[in-house]
Each structure stands twice: as C-alpha cells, then as structure tokens.
Amino acid sequence: MIALIGREEAAEAADLDYKERVHARNEEQKVEFCKGVVAMANDRGGILVIGVKEDGQRAVPEEVTKVDVGDSEQRRLRDVLLNVSPHPLQVDILAVEDPDDPGHGVLLVLVERSGLAPHALLDTRDKTHHRDGWLRFPIRNGAATRWMLEPEVATRYRARFTAGRSMHDRLREVEAECVAAYAERDGSALPDPPQEADRFGVRIPDYGFYRTKPTRPILVVTIVPETAGRLVLNRAALLEFQRAQHAEPVMIGRHWTFQKVGVAPGRLIAVSGDPVIAVYSELHTDGAGSFLIALDGEDQTGETIQVLVQDLVFYLLSALRYLGRHARDRTAASGVTAIRLSLLADTDQIDGSGIDLPRRDSLREIQLTSNTSYGDYAGLSPTCRAVGDVFAPLDDLATDGPGLISAAAMVANEACHAFGLAEVPPLDINGTINPHHWEEPLRSIITNWASW
C-alpha cells in the first residue's frame, strides 16, 4: 500500500475508493458504508480500501492510516451490509495486516458486479415522510457516488428480468442437450445385462431391472452462471480434466471417479457405466453444465418407483459442488448462478427440449419415500416430473459449507412441491444438515462432511 502513495495511476475511479476509516456504528455511518459498497455492485464492481487517506484535491492515496483488521471487525462490517435489499451481495473482505503492528492494517472490500442489480439500501436518516426511511439505489458516477433516478431504476430492473429469462433459456438448452446425449449413449435397453457394480459405495443398482422394465428415472442438475467463463478446449484442457477426476472426489465423502472422459462440441464430457450409464455429465466451456444420475428405485415391482429422499439430496449436493467447481475454477465464471433440478420418470419428460426423445410404452410415476422413522411421506402424491429453479451465488456451490447446503435445500424444496412435500427434511434452508432424516451409511458420510 505504501508504494501507491501519491501515484496518479492509483487515483480513485469508478471501481476504486479509499476510506480513512469506516465507523459504521450510528445510522448515518452505516448508510454511508452501505452506499459505497452497493454503488459498486450496481455498477461494474470494484474495491473499497479502508485504512488509506486520500488527497482531497487529486483523489490519490496520501497516507496509510491503518484500521482494526481483526475477525470481529470484519464480521461487524458484514452485518452492516445486511441492510441491503436484495441480499446477498457478492462481497469479500480481506485483511492486509502490518507485521509491525499486529491487528492493524488495511481492509480490502472486494465487490463483484451483481447480476441481481439494482440493489437498494434502507436510508433511515430521513423519516420525514415515512417512519422506516426510504429505499434508495446508489451507483458510481466516476470517482463519486450518486443516487439513481426513477427511470434508471426501472431500466435496471428490466435488464435484470431480461437477463434472468436469458439464463433460464440457457438452462433449458444445456439440460436438454445433456439428456438427449445420455439417451443416445445409454444401453439400458440392450438384452444382456452387465455385472452388477457398486457405483459410489452407497447403493448398488440393479441394471437388469433397467433393461427389462420400461421406466428408468433420472435426476438432472444444471447450472448457468450469470457471468460466463471461458475454457479453451484443447489437449491440455482434456489432460487436466482427466487428472482432476482422480484428484478431487466427485461424490461427497466418497472416493469415486468417472470411468471415461472426453470432449464434444463446446464441452467436456464424463461418463460412468458402459454400456448402461449410471452417471453422465457435460461441462461447457462457458461454465454451464449438467450432471445426470440414473436413480435406483426402492420398489421395483409396483405401479410407482420409490426414490429415497436422502439419495436425492445427497446426489444433488454432490452435483452442485462438482458443477460449481468446474464453473468457478476451470472456466473462471462468476456471479449469481441459475440452478435447475429435474427429477424425471424417464428422459421423455424433459421440459420443452425440442428434441425428439424415445418414449416408453409404459411410464411409472416416481414416489418419494424414506427408510427413517422421521417425517411423514405417506400422503405424498407420485409424479412423472418434478422441477425446481432457483438462483444462488456461484461461490456457494463450489465451496463446502452452509451456502452449498442452503442452495441445495432451496432447489430441492421447489422441485419436491410437485409431490406435495413442502420441504425436504434432510436439509435445512439455513444451511444445516438434519441427521435424524438420514440412514446409514449416508448419515455418517454426510455428518462427517458437514463438520467443517
């Protein structure tokens, strides 16, 4: 930081602001802090540097004044940002500590451009006409910050909804292409079943059942990041992808890898199972991707196929993490991510794919169930198709933690409404696991994983 003092190239700009200190303790101070951060999120993103005094005339850094950089101060500033609507903002706070003055230094508030813009903050300083204050929309204006006018706010909302529709269309496209490729490659209709194999060390599918019965249910998880990434698809990228299958577990808590990887136009592909496919994934060069799993039915003789809720959410958590890490780490995509979960009785139940998929002569519905004594599943309705769509930060998907659990709970809840289930009991939307709703061996696997 000292090296930047007085340098013109370090002058304040639309994406760079200096604060000598941020008290953020009374209402005035809290609003000013939120205003600076939200303005960057509504614009192009940027960095707020706390602990550096600027030259009032030239707007260049003049002196490193240092502030408290301890964990408690960082948590306090994050709590202040909860005053923003809609929340959350994509903000990281990094501490640059002075080695000669422990606990003090400079705080860097890193703000991503937000796909949920425009963000507003509750300005409680003026309560003349409203007892709770006013929602106001800040934005950067060069090196300064101003409030947006009503036509600007309306334009930003239209842009957000247009982008949301575009991401939704991309979701449908990526999902449909994955299901179509799976349906073409899968050999479950062949006459001679292969030997049974333990796919993940969790459940052993009866492939013979899939070959002799008409319905094979699938779970498809698809994501599309708001800010697309870029991956150059060449031999080096394929070799890295091959190495990654053995270096990073695909399934949570299990040392399981895909058996075969390859490339297709604009994407990497990964397959487990030959000729009967158990898991199939397509990872696009822009960070989008789909992860498809053929589910095991508990009851394989009745009019419905019973699927355990704990299996559903376990595969969902694993798929979201796998897709999120590809998008963030391999393609450098970022921002808010559109997520879709589809639970389908067969491939022909895909949402408006526009692709001609084979239809089965007999289609059995899916019934959610559980082997635990907790939760009431008896009154649920079977269905051939359940779909959930939500948005979540990409970093939450790629990182083990409450954010991943929360995103999985949100999209699973949305999908399971089709069965008449309000919430999936194994997960809580606040980012926690409910161990009583899991049976062994998954209970031990998931609780060990969730003890970060």
Number of helical regions: 9
End-to-end separation in angstroms reads: 34 Å
What is the radius of gyration? Answer: 25 Å
Largest sheet: 7 strands, antiparallel
Strand content: 25-35%
Structural category: alpha+beta
Mean pLDDT: 84
- Count of DSSP E strands? 23
Helix content: 25-40%
Q: Note poorly predicted spans.
A: 190-214
Strand order of the largest sheet: 14-15-16-17-13-19-21
Taken from the alpha-carbon principal axes, the silhouette is elongated
Spell out the blueprint of helices and strands:
Layout lengths: L15 E4 L7 H16 L3 E5 L1 E3 L6 E4 L2 E2 L2 H10 L3 E2 L5 E7 L6 E8 L8 E4 L10 E3 L1 E4 L2 E4 L2 H36 L21 H6 L5 E10 L7 H13 L12 E5 L2 E6 L6 E6 L4 E6 L9 E5 H22 L3 E11 L20 E5 L15 E9 H5 L3 H15 L10 E2 L3 E2 L8 H8 L3
Parallel strand pairs: 1-2, 18-20
Antiparallel strand pairs: 2-8, 3-4, 5-8, 6-9, 7-8, 9-10, 11-12, 13-17, 13-19, 14-15, 15-16, 16-17, 19-21, 22-23
Helix pairs in contact: 6-8
Primary descriptors:
452 residues, alpha+beta, 7-stranded antiparallel beta sheet, 5-stranded mixed beta sheet, 9 helices, 26% strand
Would you mind describing this structure in some detail?
The chain is of the alpha+beta class and 452 residues long. It is 29% helix and 26% strand. The strands form 7 sheets. Strands 14-15-16-17-13-19-21 form a 7-stranded antiparallel β-sheet, with helices on both faces. Strands 1, 2, 5, 7 and 8 form a 5-stranded mixed β-sheet that branches. The protein has a 3-stranded antiparallel β-sheet with strand order 6-9-10, with helices on one face. Helix 6 (309-330) packs across helix 8. The model is unreliable at 190-214 (pLDDT under 50).
